[in-house]
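User: Last request for today: this protein with zinc ion, please.
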Amino acid sequence: MQISEHAQQQFLCLIRCLLHSYSLLIDSSSAAPASTQPVSGRVLNAYSGDELVYNKTLGDWRTHNGVDYACAQDAQVCAPAAGKVTAVDTDSRWGSVVCIEDSTGHLWRVCGTADPTVQTGDEVSVGQILGRAGSIPNECAEETHIHLEVLQGEQYLDPAKLLN
Ligand SMILES: [Zn+2]
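Assistant: Here's the final one, the structure of the complex with zinc ion:
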């Protein structure tokens, strides 16, 4: 049986189309791991990039290196991404901070997480409870919120762009 050139072209086109769809499927499943806001509240202050914004607590202008999500005092705080807990610290500027490193190497710093229920070395899943909303000394003039930062090496990324 002779197959026409037109039929051959159609067949090749179909194969290419299937391969393309498959590569898109692979990309979408590996490029962006699941992520979520640490609390369900509205955005109080966005990430500012290089732009200086006024800090009501400190009374000066500086970059805002994360996103603030408003919530009730003591609200449950969840892991924004799955990964390994690399640090659980308390510092004088950010209060209690839980750091999670995800599979892409991003470091998620969940600032203002009081009474942490996880410890360094724990593996957490996305949405897992990390603690409750406490206070953030550097931003205490604001209503209660969680300050979420994402670092890639030394560079701050906009967490809002990574949430899906
Ligand atoms: Zn903030």
